[in-house]
Amino acid sequence: MRVGLLGAGRIGAFHAATLTRTDGVGELVIADADPARATDLAAATGARAAGSVSEVFHAAGVDAVVIATATAAHAALVTRAARAGLPAFCEKPVALDLAGTVRALREVEAAGTLLQIGFQRRFDAGYRAARAALRSGALGRVHTIRCVTSDAAPPPAAFLPQSGGLIRDCMVHDFDAVRWMTGREVVEVYARGTDAGAAFFREAGDVDTAAALLTLDDGTLVTATATRYNGAGYDVRTELSGERDQWVVGLTGRTPATSADPAGPGAPVRPWSGFLERFEDAYRAELAAFVRAARGEAGNPCPGAEGLRALHIAEACEVSRREGRPVRLAEVG
Predict the structure, then answer these.
(1) Looking only at Cα atoms, what is the longest distance across the chain?
(2) Please, which residues have CB within 8 angstroms of residue 256's CB and are 6 or more apart in sequence?
(3) I need a surface site. Which of 27, 47, 55, 258 has the fewest CB within 10 A?
(4) What is the mean pLDDT of the chain?
């Protein structure tokens, strides 16, 4: 099949290299708002460059599209793919607000097309093993889940206004992973944030560090923390504590943490540097799953509604952070 890749930035470049090696992809056509960037990426990966995004939809004859543009363009491109009858993979989020997300998903529903959302943790070996252990009952009743998402260093200042903020950009992955692993829904949140870092966080109305307490519909308590300032390295972990056992996702020889116990492990020699390195295998697996789904060989592993539900939790956390109070999800959206 011929796949159109929309966006030739950092994640787009990674996806281009992956798609050219993915079974079932016969040709890759790349487009970007900057045609020169698309041309350079196509030359580096053996793909074909399109002169514009419109060319991908109207003249390139693609069978599916992968959307890896700036977030602000996602909803419009999801809508264009639906109206063109094309299966689409879209990096999260579909839109930065609930209303925009719902509008795009209604277009997909009306067209009857496939839309897969890019929550790559669903394809990570550790998260998948933890989900299986939890669902099998091996952990017993799970009473507490602790999530950590920490960037090694802040993103460029220009990224913040288009990212949706720390909670929507980073913690939304934890919200999706918790729902996916447990099969439960979040009913209430309480979130706080701090902006003591660089001034550009305050200028963007964002925070550089946040924490949230989530209550699931069965009473399980979930804590989620995120920061842009984790100098030890990129850190993503999830602990699931049950009455019978406790499992940890992301606890490896590259976890950027040093034990304070003299008998414990020291700092890793090569900690994770960022999300592309940490989740490299997961990103490849999710695109392979998309290609299979687009070819009709498998079901959709992460439909658009899943992205909406995770964003709903993030929106409730933003309301809680701004207003300094617990927020029921039923209040939002």
Answers:
(1) 64
(2) 152, 230, 232, 233, 234, 235, 267, 268, 271, 272
(3) 258
(4) 96
Nearest alpha carbon to residue 137 among 238, 239, 220, 243 = 243
pLDDT score of 293 more than 90: yes
The per-residue pLDDT for 88 is: 98
Structure tokens at 312: 């709903």
* Residue 106 identity: R
Number of neighbours of residue 316 by Cβ within 10 angstroms: 28
Same-domain check for residues 74 and 46:
yes
Q: In which domain, by residue range, is 131 found?
A: 123-278+310-331
Are residue 65 and residue 114 in the same domain, yes or no? yes
Residue 78 corresponds to which tokens in the numbers above?
């999801």
Query: Residue 296 belongs to a domain with what CATH number?
Result: 3.40.50.720
177 and 92 housed in the same domain: no
Strand 209-216 to 235-242 pairing: unpaired
Residue 333 pLDDT > 80? no
> Nearest 5°: phi and psi at 32?
-150, 160
Q: Whole-model pTM?
A: 0.95
What strand order describes the sheet that includes 246-249? 246-249, 235-242, 142-150, 221-227, 209-216, 186-194, 327-328
